[in-house]
Amino acid sequence: MSRLGSVQQKVPCLFVTQVKQEPSAKRERQPFKVLATETINQKALDADIYNAIPTEKVDGTCCYIATYKGQPYLWARLDRKANKQAEKRFKRFLYSADNSKGFTWNIEEDFRPVPESWIPAKEIKHCNGKPFPDENGHIPGWVPVEKNSKQYCWHTTVVDYDMELALVLKQCTEDPGLLEISPVPLSSFSEQTLELIGTNINANPYGLGNKKHPIHLLVPHGTFQIKNAPALNHSDILAWLDGCKEGKIEGIVWHCAEGNLIKLHRYHLGLTWPIPDPYLISQPVVVNFSGAKYDCNFEPKTLFYYFSKLEGQRFNSLRDISDLCPDFLSL
After folding, report:
1. 17 bridge partner residues
2. DSSP assignment of 265-307, as one string?
3. What is the rounded CA–CA span in Å between residue 109 and residue 115?
4. 85 by DSSP, 3-state: which?
5. Three-class SS of residue 87?
6. In principle, which of 78, 193, 212, 305 could form an S-S bond with 143, CB 3.0–4.6 Å?
7. What residue spans of 113-164 are helical by DSSP H?
8. Which PANTHER family does the record associate with it (predicted)?
């Protein structure tokens, strides 16, 4: 497994955080904010954060590639959550004066059912051989995205199961200053995680496509490494995120040598997201569908088909491709 694609239950924040009792800027109806202090988290130090690889945190929904029905499949994130009665008990426990003894879960009875194909995420805790809830009372997991899934219809647009391909946004190998949209074998990402971004994901912070002509892409985790990352202290990171062109990102994820991940969101530092012009859309992008293995007919009216018609074309930004939607999506 690539260490840039490991599956974690809970990614610690770079800094020790504290709760401030005022409305969250990230989650509606959450009456508190989680803000970073200036103290580096011990978990980050234990993971050797000073020798980690800093990468851009891309704003989307997490996906996973693993074998299903004998072939590589895209899996969508699906956390198993507590039923109403168990959730009420858990909330009472969280807000009680004395919760030092921990909360007792009944795994068999306290959680809502999930599809038979559901699997728990790797590295989560187990108790008596069963996956155990995290600190939020959820059991992180995955469910395979079937070809004609209605629930995960946007996920289906970025995979071609017949050809076993994923539609990927990545750094161009030949030109590091250039982004590339290309089909990549699903097997290349076996047991790795990716981020699904696009029109109908998280309010579309990168301006991809539109409601009439939606565009979605997969971004492998760890794809966009930060070349000139700020020093690992509160003031330098805040200044970089708030005032540097390359810092116009949702956050930073550090990939540590043993596969551990450490993260920091903009909102941990009191900064807003989304922002008008994120760094990702400031970079030129090329469409690369060349090569004999892709010289075939993709199914009409799919993103693979549409992008294959743009082979070799270069654009100033991802939004420029979106501007062509009425033209190339009518092919």
Report:
1. 36
2. EGGGGT--SS-SS-GGGGS-EEE---SGGG-S-PPTTSHHHHH
3. 16
4. helix
5. helix
6. 78
7. 153-156
8. CHROMOSOME 28 C12ORF29 HOMOLOG, RNA LIGASE 1
Give the residue among 17, 1, 233, 258 at the shortest CA–CA distance from 135: 17
Q: Are 248 and 266 in contact (CB under 8 A)?
A: no
d(CA 78, CA 24): 24
What separation in angstroms does the CA of 201 have from each of 62, 151, 204? 11, 13, 5
pTM of structure: 0.91
Six-digit token string for 287:
């469409």
Q: What is the pLDDT of residues 57-86, one digit of tens each?
A: 999 999 999 999 999 999 999 999 999 999
- Structure confidence by residue, pLDDT tens digits, 28-42: 444 557 899 999 999
Residue with tokens 């980690």: 52
Instruction: Output the DSSP codes for 240-268.
Output: HHHH-GGG-SSEEEEE-TTS-EEEEEGGG
CA dist., res. 182 & res. 170, Å (int): 8
Q: Rounded to 5 degrees, what angle do the CA atoms 11, 19, 135 make?
A: 40
Q: How far apart are alpha carbons 10 and 14 in whole angstroms?
A: 13
Please give the Cα distance from 200 to 61 (Å, whole number): 10
